[in-house]
Specification:
With 74 residues, this protein is an all-alpha fold. The protein has 3 helices and no strands. The radius of gyration is 18 Å and the shape is elongated. The relative contact order is 0.18.
Length: 74
C-alpha cells in the first residue's frame, strides 16, 4: 500500500508540476548546471504522470501478503 501511495504522489507531481520534478532529478543526475533540456521532456513527464495514475486506478488493490482462495468445481 505504501508503494502505491508513493507512486501516486509521484504521478500527481509529474502531472501538476512536471518542470519541478524533472529539474529536481536532473539536478541529482548531473554535476553542472549548464544542461539544457528540450521542451518535450516536460510534456513526456506529464504524460508519464497520467499513465502512472491511470495504471494505479485501473489495477487491482492486491496486496502481496493477501491469500487468494481458489476453488475448483468438479
Amino acid at each position: 500500500m505504501m508503494f502505491r501511495t508513493l507512486l501516486a504522489l509521484l504521478g500527481l507531481a509529474e502531472l501538476l508540476a512536471p518542470r519541478r520534478v524533472v529539474d529536481f532529478w536532473m539536478g541529482l543526475a548531473t554535476k553542472s548546471d549548464d544542461v539544457e533540456l528540450r521542451r518535450w521532456v516536460y510534456t513526456a513527464a506529464r504524460i508519464e504522470g497520467v499513465l502512472i495514475l491511470l495504471w494505479l486506478l485501473t489495477s487491482g488493490d492486491d496486496e502481496p501478503g493477501e491469500a487468494v482462495a481458489v476453488t475448483a468445481e468438479t
